[in-house]
Amino acid sequence: LSVGFRTVEPLEYYRRFLKENCRPDGRELGEFRATTVNIGNTGSITTADGSALVKLGNTTVICGVKAELATPTADSADKGYIVPNVEFPSLCSMRFRSGPPGEEAQAASQFIADVIENSQMIAKEDLCIANGKLAWVLYCDIICLDYDGNILDASTFALLAALKNVQLPSVTINEETGSSEVNLKQKNPLIIRKHPVATSFAIFDDTLLIVDPTAEEEDLATGTVTVVTDDEGRLCSVHKPGGSPITGAKLQDCITRAITRHKEVKKLIDKVIKSVKPK
């Protein structure tokens, strides 16, 4: 099929491939793009307390986690905070402009906040150092470097990998002075209680599901759905921003595929963490 036809009739161009159960990039409908992850000081951000770079095909996302000390709020005296923020700088795609975060970045930040909350990946109590006095705040900045669709899967993966790379110094409170003393020589990894993994699908012509959509596929789709599962195969959340409805049977199919994808991602993360020597 010609490039001209793809430009003039992109949807018809795609339909001809989908009829043959494949996609223009050569993938099957249920096939993910090549996925890679780099963790910590292997080319990620050296100034962060934990970092990771994830590539999903061309989509490239970096996550840096910065830990700071703060006083817990009165109503959550025994809890720390996790503050995620997703950014789409104009360099990552023609579709984004410089300036304050647009709608898509805000929606992605909210999605990540929901994943953290619903999956209970980190117990906020684990971030408390001294009840009512001192707790950790984890600022998780997720920045897209190259946007080619399926940003939610890549962002969730980058966040999880970066958090697994975090080493927090031990902190004690001096009883006499009441001031905090940080021991940078003694560092402990974060306790990650759950490993949420996102799996996204694009819906074509209201009925056909394709996994890990590119930016072009997202633009042509009649809807998208993202399923987040944890280690036990439990559903953490289903994110469906409008678009064509999805039947219960189709959703069940998505969940089954998401559980399989979770195993692959977890295996990939474990392998990379093993190869990274602690600082």
From TrEMBL:
Source domain of life: Eukaryota
CC annotations in GO: cytoplasmic exosome (RNase complex); nuclear exosome (RNase complex); nucleolus
GO molecular function term, any single one: mRNA 3'-UTR AU-rich region binding
Subcellular location: Cytoplasm; Nucleus, Nucleolus
Keyword rRNA processing found: yes
Exoribonuclease phosphorolytic domain residues: 41-169, 196-259
Keyword Nucleus attached: yes
Record-linked Pfam families: RNase_PH, RNase_PH_C
Alphabetized UniProt keyword annotations: Acetylation, Cytoplasm, Exosome, Nucleus, RNA-binding, rRNA processing
Major subcellular site: cytoplasm
GO terms under biological process: exonucleolytic trimming to generate mature 3'-end of 5.8S rRNA from tricistronic rRNA transcript (SSU-rRNA, 5.8S rRNA, LSU-rRNA); nuclear mRNA surveillance; nuclear polyadenylation-dependent rRNA catabolic process; rRNA catabolic process; TRAMP-dependent tRNA surveillance pathway; U1 snRNA 3'-end processing; U4 snRNA 3'-end processing; U5 snRNA 3'-end processing
UniProt-listed Gene3D superfamilies: GHMP Kinase, N-terminal domain
Family: Belongs to the RNase PH family.
Protein name per its UniProtKB record: Exosome complex component RRP43
